[in-house]
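Intended use. Records like the one below are meant for learning the mapping from a protein sequence to its folded structure. Do not use them to infer anything beyond what is encoded.
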Amino acid sequence: MVQSINTKVDFVTDATSFMGLTDYGKIMIGDKGFEFYNDRDTRKYIQIPWDELDYVVASVMFRGKWIPRYAIRTKKNGTYSFSSKHPKKVLRAIRKYVNPERMVKSLTFFQVLKRGLKFKLGRKRSN
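Structure written out for the chain above:
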C-alpha cells in the first residue's frame, strides 16, 4: 500500500489520469500536495508536493461553464493531465495552496490556429 504525503485531506473525488493509457481513480488534495491513486492497481499513483508544482493549466470552455480537463505542470517531471467529476471544486481546493497567478487557462482552438498561421506566414515573408 502506498503512503500518502498529506497529513490533512481537503478534497477527494473520482478522476481520470491521462498519462499514457487512461487510468481511473481518485484525486486527493491535502495540505502537503496533490495525489492521484488508481482504483485497480495500487502501484499506479501520482504524488506531487506543492513546492514541486509549477503551473496548473485548465481547459475552459463556454466562458467557464465547463472545464473538461486540467493539467499540472511540475518543475522537473513534466505535465500530468487529469479530468474529474467536479473540476471546479478541485481547482478551488488547489487554489488554497498554489498562488492564483500560477493557475492559467489553456489556449482556445482559435488561438492555437491563429498562432500557427502567424508563425507560418511570418516564416514565408522572412525567407
